[in-house]
Specification:
The complex is a heterodimer of chains A (281) and B (363). With 281 residues, chain A is mostly helical. Chain A has 13 helices and no strands. Helices cover 68% and strands 0% of the residues of chain A. In chain A, helix 1 packs across helix 13 and helix 8 crosses helix 9. The chains are: A mainly alpha (281), B alpha+beta (363).
Chain lengths: 281, 363
C-alpha cells in the first residue's frame, strides 16, 4: 500500500475513533444550545437548526422561562466543598506520602497496602453506613459532612501519587540541605517540595476533579440548597413527568468549564523530570 | 581549631553492629582519608561525623564540643556527596549561595562569597546555568564550591570522584589537593580507591568490617602494613602474599623453593612457624632491569607466564611458591611467555605475617 494511502486511512480511522470518544461530550455541548423540542425530535436532528442561549439565561434567571433551580448556590457549594476537600486531602496526603517515602517505621508496608486497598471498595458501598453515622452525628446535609467524605476518598490516592514523586527526589538533596543549614522542615519546603511540585499539582487536580464530579455519595448526603453540589443539582431538572434535557445539558456545560480551566492552568506545572541533573546523570 | 575526635564510636542498626567502637583523632587542617572495601563502615562513619546518622554509642567531638546530639546544621561542616546532590531547580549561583541565604546573610555578602568560590574553582561562566546543563566534572566543582562558601570547620567528602571517568578523576584529584592547600581546612574524605587515598591523604585510615585496621601516612601504610589485609589493599599491583614455613632461617614454600627470612624479621620467628611471606612487585626485578639500589639481595630464577608492557616498565606475571605473583621490569625489553629470567629480590623490603591471624610479625 502506498504510504500516502496508508496515511489517509490512518487519519480516517483516527477520526472515527475520536468521534466515538468525543460524541457524548459534543452532544451535551450541542444540546446545551438547543431547545428541548429539538433535542426530543424523532428522528434525531443531528445538525442543530438554530442555536440559542436561552437555556443558560433560564438557569441564571434571565429571560422568559426561568428555571427554579438555585444554580448559583449549587455552584458555590461545589466550589467550597471541592476546594476545601482538595486542600485537606493534599495536606494530609502529601505529608503521608512524604512519610512513606522518607521514613521507615513499624507496619509501614501493611499500612501502605491497606491505604491502597481502601481504594478498591466502591464508594457507593459505603454510602449506607456513612449515611447512618452522619445522621447520628448530625452532619447529614451539611457541607462539612460532604467535605469529610471527599477528603477521605482523596487521601489514599494523594498519598500514593505524592509518595512516588517524593521517592524520586534523591534523599541526598534533603541531606545536603540539612548540612547547608536547613532544618528538616526547611529542607522539605525549600528543596523537596519544589521538586515534587508537579506530582503534588497532579494529585491536586485529581482530588479536585473527583470532588467536583462526585455524584453517588453526594446525592445521598445532601438534601437542601445549603449543601447540594452541581452534579446532584442536575437531578433537579427531572420532574415527575418531564425531564428538561436542554437545561440539564446547559448545567452540565457549566460543570465542565471550571474543571477544564483548572486542568489547563495546572497543566503548565506538570513538568516531568525536573529533578533530572541534580544528581549523577 | 577544627579537630575531629571519635571516641569509641559504635553504630548499630537494630541488633546489627556495623561500626565497632572506633577511635580516631584528626588534627586541625589535616587531610584524612577513610579507605576500605564496600561495607567496611567508612561512609557510615563519615555520615555520623556529619550528623546524618545517629551514633549508637561513644562520642564525636568537633573542636572541643561533643556533637552527638547536634543536628547537621549546627556542626558547621560541609559535605560533598557522591551524587553531587546539587539542587536541580536552582542555578549554580543559587546553589552556591543557598547555605548563606538560609543563614540570612545580606545579598551583597552572598554575592561576594559566591564570586569568591567561583573564582577559586573556575565556575565564573557557569553561574547562571542549572545543574542539568553541566558536565560531570563541572557539577563536581559546583558541589565543592557549595561546600567552601560557608568556610566550614570541617569538609566531608563522600566518594566524590567515583562517578567520574578515569581521566577526569585524576584531574579532580589534583583540584581537591589544590583546594585543600588554598582553603586550609580539616578534611575527612571517604573513598574505596586506594590510589585516591595514597595521593590525597596526610594520613590514611584503613577500615575493614567496621574496625580501623591501620592509621598512618601513605608511606607508612605502604611500607609497613600491619596485616595481610592492608598489604593486599594498599598499593597497585597488590602485594604478593605466599604461604610458607620457617626452617633454618629460611621461608620454605609449598613448591619446595625458599628465600631467607628478611633481615627485619630474623630472630622473631622460630622453626616450624607457618607464615605468609609478602613482597611488592617493585622489589622483585629481573637483573639488568632494576633501579640502582643496594641492599640485601636474593637471587631467584622466574619462569615468566606473561608480560604486561606499560611503556616505561612492564609487569611480569609468573608463579612462585605455589602462587601467581607479579614482578616489575624497568626499562623493559620484550619478554616471551615461558622465558626464564634471573631476578633479584630486595629482602629488606619483604614482610612476614602470621599465617593464622594475618598480623605482621615485625613486632
Amino acid at each position: 500500500m502506498p504510504s500516502r494511502t496508508k496515511t489517509v486511512l490512518i487519519w480516517i480511522v483516527t477520526f472515527f475513533i475520536m468521534l466515538i470518544i468525543c460524541m457524548p461530550g459534543l452532544w451535551i455541548i450541542l444540546s446545551a444550545f438547543r431547545t428541548n423540542g429539538e433535542i426530543l425530535t424523532k428522528p434525531a436532528i443531528w445538525i442543530p437548526q438554530n442555536l440559542t442561549l436561552d437555556n443558560f439565561r433560564a438557569i441564571f434567571g434571565f429571560g422568559e422561562n426561568v428555571v427554579g433551580i438555585p444554580v448559583a448556590s449549587y455552584f458555590r457549594n461545589s466550589l467550597v466543598i471541592s476546594i476545601t476537600s482538595t486542600a485537606l486531602a493534599l495536606l494530609i496526603g502529601m505529608t503521608g506520602g512524604y512519610a512513606f517515602a522518607r521514613y521507615s517505621f513499624p507496619g509501614k508496608k501493611p499500612a501502605f497496602l491497606w491505604l491502597m486497598l481502601s481504594r478498591t471498595v466502591p464508594g457507593i458501598a459505603l454510602s449506607l453506613p456513612i449515611f447512618i453515622i452522619w445522621s447520628r452525628l448530625g452532619i447529614i446535609d451539611t457541607k462539612f459532612g460532604v467535605i469529610l467524605v471527599f477528603t477521605a476518598i482523596n487521601v489514599p490516592f494523594t498519598v500514593w501519587l505524592t509518595e512516588g514523586f517524593f521517592r524520586q527526589v534523591p534523599n541526598d538533596l534533603n541531606e545536603a540541605a540539612q548540612i547547608d543549614g536547613c532544618t528538616r522542615w526547611q529542607a522539605f519546603w525549600k528543596i523537596e517540595f519544589p521538586l515534587a511540585k508537579s506530582g503534588i499539582a497532579s494529585a491536586g487536580i485529581f482530588a479536585f476533579l473527583t470532588s467536583w464530579n462526585e455524584y453517588a455519595l453526594a446525592s445521598q448526603l445532601t438534601r437542601s440548597t445549603d449543601s447540594k453540589t452541581l452534579p446532584v443539582g442536575l437531578m433537579d431538572f427531572t420532574a415527575q413527568f418531564t425531564i428538561d434535557w436542554a437545561g440539564m445539558c446547559a448545567m452540565a456545560v457549566i460543570i465542565i468549564i471550571p474543571a477544564l480551566i483548572l486542568t489547563f492552568l495546572v497543566q503548565k506545572h506538570l513538568i516531568a523530570g525536573l529533578t533530572f541533573g541534580g544528581v549523577k546523570g | 581549631m577544627a579537630t575531629v575526635t571519635l571516641k569509641d564510636v559504635v553504630k548499630r542498626y537494630g541488633a546489627v553492629e556495623v561500626v565497632h567502637g572506633i577511635n580516631l583523632d584528626i588534627a586541625h587542617n589535616e587531610f584524612v582519608v577513610l579507605v576500605g572495601p564496600s561495607g567496611c563502615g567508612k561512609s557510615t562513619t563519615l555520615r555520623m561525623i556529619a550528623g546524618l546518622e545517629e551514633i549508637s554509642d561513644g562520642d564525636i567531638l568537633i573542636g572541643d564540643q561533643v556533637v552527638n546530639q547536634l543536628p547537621p546544621r549546627k556542626r558547621n561542616i560541609s559535605m560533598v556527596f557522591q551524587n553531587y546532590a546539587l539542587y536541580p531547580h536552582m542555578t549554580v549561583s543559587e546553589n552556591l549561595g543557598f547555605s548563606l541565604k538560609i543563614a540570612s546573610r545580606s545579598k551583597e555578602e552572598i554575592e561576594a562569597a559566591v564570586q569568591d568560590a567561583a573564582d577559586i574553582l573556575g565556575l565564573d561562566e557557569l553561574l547562571e546555568r542549572t545543574p542539568a546543563e553541566l558536565s560531570g566534572g563541572q557539577r563536581q566543582r559546583v558541589a565543592m564550591g557549595r561546600a567552601i562558601v560557608r568556610h566550614p570547620d570541617v569538609f566531608l567528602f563522600d566518594e566524590p570522584l567515583s562517578n567520574l571517568d578515569a581521566k577526569l578523576r585524576t584531574q579532580m584529584r589534583v583540584e581537591i589537593k589544590k583546594l585543600h592547600a588554598k582553603v586550609k581546612t580539616t578534611i575527612v574524605y571517604v573513598t574505596h580507591d586506594q590510589v585516591e587515598a595514597m595521593t590525597l591523604a596526610d594520613r590514611i585510615v584503613i577500615m575493614k568490617d567496621g574496625h580501623i585496621v591501620q592509621i598512618g601516612t601513605p608511606l607508612e601504610v605502604f611500607e609497613r602494613p600491619v596485616d595481610t589485609f592492608v598489604a593486599g589493599f594498599i598499593g597497585s599491583p597488590p602485594m604478593n602474599l605466599i604461604d610458607g614455613t620457617i626452617k633454618n632461617d629460611t621461608v620454605v614454600f609449598s613448591d619446595g623453593r625458599s628465600v631467607p627470612v628478611p633481615p627485619d624479621f630474623s630472630g622473631k620467628v622460630v622453626d616450624g612457624r607457618r607464615v605468609v611471606f609478602g613482597f611488592r612487585a617493585d622489589v622483585l626485578m629481573p637483573k639488568g632491569h632494576t633501579l640502582a639500589e643496594s641492599g640485601v639481595l636474593h637471587d631467584l630464577d622466574l619462569t615468566i607466564d606473561l608480560a604486561e608492557p606499560l611503556g616505561s616498565e612492564s609487569i611480569l606475571l609468573s608463579s612462585f611458591g605455589g602462587k601467581d605473583i607479579q614482578a616489575r621490569m624497568h626499562n623493559p625489553r620484550p619478554v616471551k611467555g615461558g622465558e626464564v629470567l634471573s631476578c633479584e629480590l630486595h629482602l629488606e623490603k619483604c614482610h612476614l605475617f602470621d599465617a593464622e591471624t594475618g598480623q605482621s610479625l615485625r613486632g
